[in-house]
Sequence to fold (252 residues):
Amino acid sequence: MDRSEFVDRLDEELRTDDYADLDASANGLQVGHRRGDIARVALAVDAAEATIHEAIERDADVLLVHHGLAWDGFDRLTDLHYDRVAPLAREDVALYVSHLPLDGHQELGNAAGVADVLELGDREPFGAYGPEVVGTRGTAADPYTVDDLAARLDRELDTETQVLDFGPDEVEEVGIVTGSGVDWIEAAADAGLDALVTGEGKQAAYHEARDRGLNVFLAGHYATETFGVRRVGDLIEEWGIETTFVAHPTGL
Fold:
């Protein structure tokens, strides 16, 4: 497939332009040009030296990631920034990034993937971010105990979930904002949810969850955000392009 068509298809599917004024990440084609063909795409959560070099080793034409290199732009392309961009340019490997668009996508997104793992029904968008959303909510077919929900996340995400268990003993209504989503504790409590599932916490989250009577499950930033790129990879495979997932868990 032609690179230009590839980028345009992804931008349309992920609604990249709708998040342009909301996201610090420069989403879409972040490094490289539109010329040439694509035969193989490497998928990773983070763009870093390790994943970039692995993508090159696997002979990828594009590295597609959730966390890219440009956040509010580059002031200078030196040192660490240069060490990451230079191999991409030298080997003509393009970098495509989808941050908040991939969080908010209700079918391909990270939150949608976690919702599938938890077998949530009656889903609705959740996690307002300006006019868009960055998560989803749903209802468990059979209520979880707090321990059972944590165990399910541990097993399916290969993680170690930390729980702020300040909500109901039975968890039925669940909100999900993956990665760093504790800023939506208030929204989850106001929506009458029993729990918020996210990746990592902050010091203030403990007291906010406690004071609002909400269960918060911290299942790991990386662990909650592998779903999106993998699901986009499945879509890319349907376009006739080979994909390969570059796993580099951080444990965080």
